[in-house]
Amino acid sequence: MGRLAFQYGTVHAFKSEDAMLLKNKFLKYHLPIKVMVPIITHQEDVSHYDYLISRDENIYLTIKRQFPNLKLLVIDDGHLLSEVQVDQLLQVAIHLNIAVICYGLRTDFRTAGFPGARRLLELAQVLIPVTTYCACGKKALFSVRKEHGKITFSGDQLLKGKDVSYEAVCPTCYYRKLIQYKKLKQSGRM
Ligand SMILES: [Zn+2]
Fold first, then answer.
1. What is the pLDDT of residue 19?
2. Range of the domain at 174
């Protein structure tokens, strides 16, 4: 039986280069591997991925029909999968005997779990936290969103755009920034 693993963290915890390094290692030993990403990814360049997963795609059926001989399936931005798709990945591990590694964020910029990440935390047999650090030096746990360089705590869970960026922060800094934001809003300066 293959295993489903979830490597989770904040923004900047993962680099797509990690997935590519893994891929090159596997290919060196002629082991079949595919690296995939949900099509709704924020990444602009997706040319290095082997496959883009559609929103309502049944991943189990895709793997069974198109890539049944895989040894390792790597999913980047796993938090962007639907809950149902995460269930399908477990089926890939169990029934197709393929190891599955998902990289992804645990929570969004408001500390709420992404549906895909929540399901991965529930189902994955292997959970691997990836450490990142806040600017203050403590371990980061959350991500804050910046629009045009200013921190914001409002907006949709998924937001694309070149003016949008994210920063990994520790819980202390997160709530300090949240209080500052609320004060600025109350004072009408935002
Ligand atoms: Zn901090």
1. 79
2. 142-186
Tell me, yes or no, whether 27 lies in a domain: yes
Report CA(11)–ligand 1 centroid distance (Å): 14
Q: How many CA atoms lie within 13 A of 62 on its CB side?
A: 16
What distance in Å separates the CA atoms of residue 2 and residue 110, rounded to the nearest whole number?
A: 34
Average pLDDT over residues 148-173: 88
pLDDT band at 162 (very low <50, low <70, confident <90, very high): confident
Number of domains in the chain: 2
pTM: 0.90
Residues 74 and 14 sit within 8 Å (Cβ to Cβ): no
Same domain for 14 and 71, yes or no, is yes
Kindly give the distance from the C-alpha atom of residue 32 to the centroid of ligand 1, in angstroms, as a whole number: 41
Tokens read off for 55: 């929103």
Give the pLDDT confidence of 32-73 residue by residue, as tens digits: 999 999 999 988 889 989 999 999 999 999 999 999 999 999
The CA 157 to ligand 1 mean position distance, Å, reads 22
What beta strand segments (E) does the chain contain?
4-9, 33-38, 51-53, 72-75, 99-105, 126-129, 142-147, 150-152, 164-169
82 and 176 within one domain: no
Ligand 1 centroid – CA 30 distance (Å): 44
> Which whole-number Å values give the CA distances from 28 to 51, 77, 134, 173, in the listed order?
20, 25, 36, 43
Q: Which amino acid is at 171?
A: P
